[in-house]
Amino acid sequence: MVHILLERSIKLGNQSRVTEFTLLAIGYVSHFKPLIFTIFLIVFLMTVIGNSLIILVVRLNFSLHTPMYFFLSNLSFVELCYTSTTIPNILYGIIKGSGAISFAGCFTQVYLITLCATAECSLLAAMACDRYVAICRPLRYTVIISRTVCAYFAIFAWLSGVINSTVNTLVYSKFDFCGSNSMNRFYCEGQPVLRLSCSDTYISDVLATLSAAVFGVSFLLLILTSYSFILRAILKMPSASSRHKTFSTCTSHITVVVLYFGALTFMYLLPSNSSSQWLDLAVSIIYSTMTPMLNPIIYSLRNHQSHERWRQDMEMTGWRLG
């Protein structure tokens, strides 16, 4: 499917005389090349190391083979894919001093970013459901959130990502690009690319709205509904210590949800105009590069169990944590 899409994109690019796009943000930082390159490199390394360690620790420790950590390891893998799709190309562009990216390369980024974004939204919703069952239905937790159910959740997350990204990218690739080929971004995203088209984008706008409703808003509503029941259950607990202990198991997930969905909502609900372009650029960097880097830190700092396992694993390899 991806191979067919790329061939279609290349043919369309030749017909419309647009064979590449220009990522203006990469050119804007040319005067600060060493600094910006170093920042993105550090973010990339921290993201890869942090998320890889989470996957490794969960994989190696049998006591962490629980639904919550199963979803967390899947989320970490999504973050690795997310970062690997964007930052290496940014680093390459900074080195060569040009934001040019091929037509096929741009649509490949659009495809992978949409896939990862959809999968992440789905996984965050699955984690909210897991917390709901653990807190509101504790006696039936092992029955409801079984290994089979966890596997179905994960399969659904990745399958929904593939479907959403394939449909949207195929539709985008059918449009003509005969005008400006420049966008104020560090990487290619669906909506900024679509704004460069000289075709009627009504169908794609409708599709984007439906995709946002099905794969974005619905997952967010599921998360909010889950936490409304969780909050009600916590408020019914007799002691303050039990309420605090129970709520603390959700703080990491809540932090990530607010950070990720907050950035997405702010970006896509903000009217598109020249005055908001730089704000759009900043927010896109937050949810595509900073969030994947911060997730391992948030979960490691907030979760005592994973921190203790992390400590034990590091000590086994000769490291000592303070």
TrEMBL record:
Chief location bin: membrane
UniProt membrane topology term: Multi-pass membrane protein
Domain G-protein coupled receptors family 1 profile intervals: 50-299
PROSITE patterns named among the record's database cross-references: G_PROTEIN_RECEP_F1_1, G_PROTEIN_RECEP_F1_2
Family statement drawn from the similarity comment of this UniProt entry: Belongs to the G-protein coupled receptor 1 family.
Pfam family, one: 7tm_4
One Gene Ontology term, aspect cellular component: plasma membrane
Keywords in alphabetical order: Cell membrane, G-protein coupled receptor, Membrane, Olfaction, Receptor, Sensory transduction, Transducer, Transmembrane, Transmembrane helix
Transmembrane segments: 35-58, 70-95, 101-129, 141-163, 212-235, 247-269, 281-301
Record keyword Membrane present: yes
Organism: Engystomops pustulosus
Protein name per its UniProtKB record: Olfactory receptor
Location in or out of the cell: Cell membrane
